[in-house]
Design brief:
Elements (H helix, E strand, L loop, with lengths): L2 H17 L17 H15 L3 H14 L4 H13 L3 H14 L1 H4 L3 H10 L3 H12 L6 H23 L10 E2 L9 E7 L5 E8 L2 E10 L2 E2 L3 E2 L9 E7 L5 E7 L8 E7 L10 E2 L10 E6 L5 E6 L9 E6 L10 E2 L10 E6 L5 E6 L9 E6 L10 E2 L13 E3 L5 E6 L9 E6 L9 E10 L9 E6 L4 E7 L5 E7 L3 E7 L6 E6 L9 E7 L7 E4 L15 H14 L4 E7 L6 H21 L7 E5 L12 H7 L1 E8 L1
Parallel strand pairs: 22-28, 30-31
Antiparallel strand pairs: 1-21, 2-3, 3-4, 4-5, 4-6, 7-8, 8-9, 9-10, 11-12, 12-13, 13-14, 15-16, 16-17, 17-18, 19-20, 20-21, 22-25, 23-24, 23-26, 26-27, 29-32, 30-32
Helix pairs in contact: 1-4, 2-3, 3-4, 4-5, 5-7, 7-8, 8-9
């Protein structure tokens, strides 16, 4: 059993054992001095078991004492306290209820503890009644009054939250992952790749924290094995985040010889062999001589959020973010501000794949009693809104730790020790309510390569919102041309790839009305700029049988303008093409007018008209069958053909 739990339980049992013998000012029938001596002796042995950390035997001994003395109020109160600290709140409430039924006057001192166990079951109405009983005791000292007032405030928050967040249709099903993941050891901090097929988590064995990895195969998790490579050491590694593409692992390393503080952030890379490289300290801008931990990485790998008690915060541990500079280095961390951070502790940030939703935990924002999980999202000005508590039963009266939410925006994972008497922390999964879910997010994964040589190409990848004509995401592929870019659903996107001395690539993903689970695999050949090279412009839009450019076309046309500006000797022919519907002469005229509309736009942006020609080919050059609607849509296109460079 965890050492901290043992210490807490020892303190709780001593509290109950000693306080039960204190004189009470209320009238009562129960007299501790008249308890059966044999029962008292067994009860005292329970105390001995508790002081040595054997709480299961202590519970058994109290049970034996109660068989001899069924009205042993102190025994019920003590066992209720042990059950409460073991988070077996139902057993705790049962014992408290019995003690209060036997003698409510003698038990009145424990109304606050009774209320906490009731709240542990989610019975906040009855918890409020019991805390009021406790606070009505005129003999409370100031510390007891403060404790009771704090709990009453938390219970009122719970009642108000339930009133303002109807959850009748929310079915909270907390499912413990199987023995492939969970063991008798401690498992926690689950983090997954965007496809949900790889999980990295922390496991403590003999006080040594290491990383373990499991893979989802045919819908089942494989038996977790220690992460391969140089990631794990004989020191403690934990509180990790894996990049969405599975290539980076940023984690917390404590008491490393080369460390800058008690705990620093480190990074390890997935090698081509599949093992993890030797960790590297993230350096003096990220790490201080204090404490840095619980990192989370944005899906584009540009923003690193983490918790730290470094100077310049609001007190305790705050959440900070560092943005990656154009030179590939992490910038000076910025505090997320007073909406997020308080004078207490904010830790365990998690940025979702939508890059707009942040979950974190706090014991400074109002909640159920200890550290709760909160959600905040970016507004239209890219600022974080006021955080909202995730509510019961996701949050409870106990500490809630890190949360991970998959790309669907609903499926969540976290570690919990709810009601656990043996194994401590285990990893669980459940679904979020819709009002606290992230945006459903799909992704494009692929590789960019030279069309002539098939060699991978490092290049820029951009994603733009068609409706707002703004860049949503811009990333750089790795040296081999591999990339992963996320697409929150509910929007239509232009997608493009650029590299100097090559024609660009463009595509579009219409997800505004598409709520499917489809992800995209793209292998993208870029064609070197040379005479005869061609490029289909996939994001040029016209009304049916018309040649006026529609809104949204300018995104791709501006890329063509940029291509012409970057290559001042480049001359191209703009080709218009149609499907085979209608008369051939009409199709020639329509395609010619559309090609001229593109030329007019480009020249309006300062490109000399001598570098451009326009020609309509009608339906004479199909690239797909005209027998299907999909084929016809491919044939209706605008294409460029390099004349010279």
């Amino acid at each position: 059993m965890n050492r901290n739990i043992i210490k807490q339980l020892r303190a709780i049992f001593i509290l109950y054992f000693l306080c039960a013998s204190l004189p009470h000012s209320y009238a009562q029938w129960y007299d501790p001095g008249k308890v059966n001596k044999k029962a008292t002796a067994i009860y005292e042995s329970a105390y001995d078991f508790a002081t040595h950390g054997d709480y299961l035997k202590s519970i058994e001994a109290i049970g034996e004492a109660l068989k001899i003395e069924p009205k042993y109020v102190e025994a019920y109160l003590s066992r209720a306290g042990i059950f409460a600290d073991l988070k077996n709140y139902q057993a705790s409430v049962d014992d408290f209820k019995k003690a209060f039924e036997l003698d409510s006057f003698f038990s009145a001192t424990y109304a606050i503890s009774y209320s906490i166990s009731l709240a542990g079951l989610g019975n906040f109405e009855e918890a409020m009644n019991k805390i009021n009983v406790f606070l009505n005791n005129p003999n409370l000292n100031e510390q007891a009054k403060r404790s009771g007032t704090y709990r009453k405030k938390a219970f009122q928050f719970a009642l108000d939250y339930k009133k303002n967040h109807p959850t009748e249709n929310y079915d909270f099903k907390l499912q413990k992952l199987g023995p492939e993941i969970n063991t008798d050891e401690l498992e926690y901090f689950p983090t997954l790749t965007i496809d949900g097929k790889t999980m990295i988590f922390s496991r403590t064995i003999n006080n040594d924290e290491d990383f373990f990895e499991s893979n989802l195969i045919d819908g089942k998790w494989s038996i977790a094995k220690i992460a391969e490579g140089k990631l794990n050491t004989n020191l403690n590694e934990g509180a990790e985040t894996i990049s969405q593409d599975g290539e980076w692992l940023i984690f917390t390393g404590c008491n490393y010889p080369e460390g800058m503080g008690s705990c620093d952030l480190y990074i390890s890379y997935k090698s081509k062999s599949g093992s993890w490289t030797e960790p590297e300290n993230l350096g003096a801008l990220i790490n201080t001589d204090l404490w840095e931990s619980t990192p989370t990485l944005s899906p584009d790998k540009k923003d690193l959020y983490f918790s730290s008690n470094r100077t310049g915060g609001f007190g305790g541990k705050d959440i900070w973010v560092s943005h990656k500079n154009s030179n590939g280095k992490w910038g000076t961390p910025e505090n997320l501000g007073p909406k997020i951070n308080t004078s207490a502790d904010e830790t365990c940030p998690f940025i979702h794949a939508d890059n707009q939703t942040l979950y974190f935990n706090s014991n400074g924002l109002m909640g159920y009693g200890m550290a709760d999980i909160f959600i905040t999202k970016k507004d239209t000005a890219n600022k974080w809104v006021v955080p909202e508590n995730l509510g019961y039963p996701i949050n409870t009266i106990d500490d809630e730790g890190s949360l991970f939410v998959t790309a669907d925006g609903i499926t969540a994972y976290y570690a919990s020790d709810r009601g656990s008497l043996k194994s401590g922390l285990d990893i669980y999964t459940f679904n979020l309510r819709n009002d606290i879910a992230a945006s459903k997010t799909t992704w494009i994964k692929g590789k960019v390569y030279d069309k002539k040589t098939n060699a991978g190409l490092p290049c820029a990848v951009e994603l733009e919102d068609i409706s707002k004509i703004n860049i949503v995401n811009k990333i750089q592929t790795d040296e081999d041309g591999n990339f992963l870019i996320t697409l929150p659903t509910g929007k239509d996107y232009n997608f493009s790839v650029r590299r100097k001395d090559y024609l660009f690539y463009s595509d579009r993903f219409l997800l505004k009305n598409d709520n499917s689970d489809t992800s995209f695999q793209l292998n993208i050949p870029l064609e070197p700029i040379a005479k005869g090279a061609t490029l289909v412009l996939k994001n040029i839009f016209f009304d049916n049988n018309k040649s006026n450019l529609k809104s949204g076309s300018e995104i791709e046309l501006d890329k063509l303008v940029q291509l012409m500006n970057d290559n001042i000797n480049l001359k191209v022919e703009i080709e218009g093409h149609t499907d085979n519907v209608g008369k051939k002469e009409d199709n020639i005229a329509l395609s010619s007018n559309r090609a001229n509309a593109v030329v007019s736009y480009i020249t309006s942006k300062g490109i000399n008209k001598s570098r451009l020609t326009a020609k309509g080919y009608g339906d004479t050059r199909p690239i797909a069958s005209n027998d299907t609607e999909e084929g016809k849509s491919h044939n209706r296109r605008t294409e460029i053909n390099v004349i010279s460079n």
